[in-house]
Amino acid sequence: MTAPLAETEARLADLATTRKIIAERIPPGTEPDPPETNAAYQAIVNAFNQHPGQAFQARELHELLGMPTDEATVNVTRSRLGRLARQGFLTQRGRGRYQKRT
Q1: Considering only 26-35, 57-66, 82-91, which range has the smallest mean pLDDT?
Q2: Which residues 6+ apart lie within 8 Å of 74 measured at CB?
Q3: Whole-angstrom Cα distance, residue 4 to residue 59?
Q4: Which residue, 8, 36, 43, 64, shows the most beta carbons closer than 10 Å to its own?
Q5: Contact at 8 Å (CB) between 73 and 67?
Q6: Which of the 8 DSSP states describes residue 31?
Q7: Alpha-carbon distance 98 to 47, whole Å?
Q8: What mean pLDDT is reported for the chain?
């Protein structure tokens, strides 16, 4: 349990450093992503952390989290899931199904 926690803390430190570097490079007057985007990512990550062995589709995540299930909103989540998979947090288990990387 200690090793995964240390890996997660190291990843969070790396993300904080990356965020700082990106913030320094953003032209003045440019607004960052709205906070709800960060909250949506956090909700998705929390869902996968609570169900590490389960694979989800975007619509299933919306139902689990009580989020709207209209097509436009679900498509945004599909994009977020793809991004999390490219970053190595998730693996893709079949078409449109994502699971936490173990």
Answers
A1: 26-35
A2: 58, 59, 62
A3: 29
A4: 43
A5: yes
A6: P
A7: 12
A8: 86
Q: Which of 62, 69, 37 is nearest to 47 (CA)?
A: 62
Dihedral pair phi/psi, residue 26, rounded to 5°: -70, 130
- 82 burial level (CB within 10 Å; 0-12, 13-18, 19+): middle
Provide φ and ψ at 55, rounded to 5°: -95, 140
Backbone angles phi, psi at 97, to 5 degrees: -110, 130
Tokens standing for residue 61 = 């995540």
Query: Any idea how long the chain is?
Result: 102
Q: Which two tokens stand for residue 92?
A: 């893709």
65's tokens: 């989290």
Cβ atoms < 10 Å from Cβ of 38: 11
Enumerate residues 6+ apart whose C-beta is below 8 A from 100: 48, 49, 51, 52, 53, 89, 90, 91
Q: Dihedral through CA 51, CA 55, CA 59, CA 61, nearest 10? A: 10
